[in-house]
Design a protein that fits this description.
This protein is 70% helix and 5% strand. It is built from 15 helices and six strands. Helix 3 packs antiparallel against helix 8 and helix 7 packs across helix 14.
């Protein structure tokens, strides 16, 4: 009889594990009242996205050549200029992907699937979501460079606000679904066996690598934020230079508070908090619960950190920007590129440390 009892217990454990990891189920039914809330948010994001394509993003005032700036106009401009790769990039991230993401999020809610499968889909959408703001950053760069000028101007239109709201709305729904998809990260026991051991220290040689890497990442991020990336050189304009920090100040001084605080958040505050979370997670001894909380927080911050998207927007602006405003490339552009490269290398090794310590010792999660 004891043997049968033991066998029954083992059978139940296997069944519970299978139900938790491999059984398909409908998330909409499990979420209950969250389902209509999330659907309203997604439909609002969809409506904002469609409307944003109808209305212009920006009205640019140039002597003898005033024009509206929008996503379709940008695509047409790049294609006519034979910049096919850039045109395809904008079509993919700013025109097509926002709709694909909303559709995928609806599928996550209404199509039965496993928790692990849903977790992978949401993780991919989370990482790609921020790239939809590529065209918005181009608009913000134009607004910054035309700030405090007499002969040229750039006035934001309703389209850019709607598009920003649509992208942030879909990103927020993705984060909520990730949180509500209960059981996506499992672990019945602490892989570190209850020890308050810093993750990087437990990872071995990575500990000694992460010390200089995180230091370099912090210094390069500071330099990228404060060194000017463009300087206006047109003879009839003020010869202003702009860094990321100066860009935020320019938008706020022009009373474009939504755009100024958006740049402040996604280009300065959130990347800085991401690095800080990696430092604390890796070097500060803590128990399993705090490791799990901080790991999830760090992952969320990573998906909302957009210095890499801003870098691509700067490179995109280089292709056609001089037709609008004559400017000179400053060392800040290279500092931003270096900071992004160092940041991703640091994140890569930090993730490697987590996998070596957290996932490779018999545990299924933090």
């Amino acid at each position: 009889m004891p043997h049968d009892s033991h066998g029954g217990s083992m059978s139940r454990k296997k069944k519970d594990k299978a139900e938790g990891a491999g059984q398909r189920h409908l998330l909409a039914k499990e979420l209950r009242w969250w389902t209509p809330v999330l659907m309203i948010m997604l439909l609002a994001a969809l409506a904002s996205n469609i409307t944003a394509l109808i209305y212009p993003f920006l009205y640019v005032e140039i002597p003898f050549n005033n024009s509206d700036y929008s996503i379709p106009h940008t695509i047409q401009l790049m294609w006519s200029g034979k910049l096919y790769a850039i045109a395809i990039l904008i079509v993919a991230f700013s025109l097509t992907f926002p709709f694909v993401k909303i559709g995928m999020l609806m599928c996550v809610i209404w199509i039965p699937t496993t928790r692990s499968g849903r977790h992978k889909i949401l993780g991919t959408l989370r990482q790609l979501g921020r790239w939809s703001l590529l065209d918005v950053f181009v608009v913000l760069i134009i607004m910054v460079l035309s700030n405090d000028q007499f002969f040229i101007g750039a006035v934001p239109k309703i389209g850019v606000s709607l598009f920003l709201a649509a992208i942030f709305g879909s990103m927020l729904v993705c984060e909520l679904l990730e949180f509500l998809n209960k059981g996506e990260v499992k672990g019945k026991r602490d892989p570190l066996e209850g020890r308050h051991t810093p993750v990087y220290w437990a990872a071995g040689w990575i500990y000694w690598l992460m010390i200089p890497m995180l230091g370099l990442a912090a210094v390069s991020l500071y330099e990228a934020i404060h060194i000017s990336y463009f300087k206006i050189t047109a003879w009839f304009l003020n010869k202003n230079s702009y860094s990321v920090f100066d860009s935020v100040e320019a938008l706020l001084s022009s009373h474009y508070y939504i755009f100024g605080y958006t740049m402040l958040g996604v280009l300065i505050v959130i990347p800085s908090l991401r690095l800080l979370s990696m430092i604390i997670l890796g070097f500060v001894p803590m128990n399993r619960i705090w490791r799990r909380i901080l790991f999830r927080t760090s992952t969320i911050l990573g998906s909302w950190s957009m210095l890499d998207v801003f870098t691509l927007a700067l490179l995109l602006f280089l292709t056609e920007g001089e037709n609008l405003i004559k400017f000179q490339i400053k060392e800040g552009l290279y500092a931003i590129i270096v900071a992004v490269v160092i940041y991703y290398i640091t994140v890569m090794f930090g993730t490697m440390a987590l996998k070596r310590v957290i996932f490779a010792r018999g545990g299924e999660g933090l």
